[in-house]
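User: Teach me something about this protein's shape.
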Amino acid sequence: MNEQAVAVQQAEGYTSIQAINESVAASSAWVGLLRQEMGKSIIGQEHLVERLIVGLLTGGHILLEGLPGLAKTLAVKTLSMAVQTDFRRIQFTPDMLPADIMGTQIYNPKDTVFEVKQGPIFASLILADEINRAPAKVQSALLEAMQEKQVTIGEESFKLPDLFLVLATQNPIEQEGTYPLPEAQIDRFMLKVVVDYPSQTQERMILDAIDHTDSKINVNPVIGADDIMASRKVVDSIYMDDKIKDYIVSLVCATRDPRSFNLDLHDYIETGASPRATINLKAVSKALAFLAGRGYVTPDDVKSAAMDVMRHRIRISYEAEAEAVSSEDIIRKILDTVPVP
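Assistant: First, the predicted structure itself:
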């Protein structure tokens, strides 16, 4: 390829990325408004709010883990008020049955037929509160809905809305009365976000805000389902260089065969991240570029996404548990070692 052809190709690439930048700027105006509305009731927790918006942009389900009282449920409820769509909260309990979520067939004696009564899963935004309080058979009932976006009741299957998002909260598994989620279900969550305590400054702001909670906080809807679906198309169009794609694949493969990347972690990893980690890293990185107002993905976007995408997809060994090495420690080591493009 001669120099003139290379110059033309570079000019066309620049024009294309510039067009994507303009498209991102035009379709992301609602993000600032949404942050503002959520800030009315959520003090701090910027990472949590950002990840909830990423879920909207990618259609990926999110698992929120943290101790009670850290605004996990409040954040999801506030999000539902700021988005013009239907919302259902499902409180998981040890005596829950799959029919309590999906629905069931009820006999109609008047017409002598069985009729389907749909459950709360038939909504766009689902808050699965304390999801690990219910036994495994209830968790497995969510798999079809989360993966196929459909529910089968009896012999009939029903499609779920195009905008369908499961936002689940989970207590740490060491707490009394909790069940570990099945691995197949955990892998369906695009992100696992660990919610921590607020800072001392934020705690003081929360204390001051208590004086103003006599009246209900008015959260205004700022975006609808159609706008979100349109923004998703823009996110899909964001440019990702081949070197960034190779970097994503290297990060995931390093969890499966760390020796190939000169990492002494093989004794700590029982199973590495699944191919869903690769797919989700790409999607989340593009969403983070969208939130930053860029039409292209940078290595920092991938690094920012890596922890929440992979922490629940790496199973650590007994040696790691004995030496207090967590999946987060392993991911940090991988991010520090794998060459950045």
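Now, about its shape. The first strand starts at residue 61 and ends at 65. Confidence is low (pLDDT under 50) at residues 1-14. If you'd like, I can walk through any region in more detail.
User: That's plenty for now, thanks!
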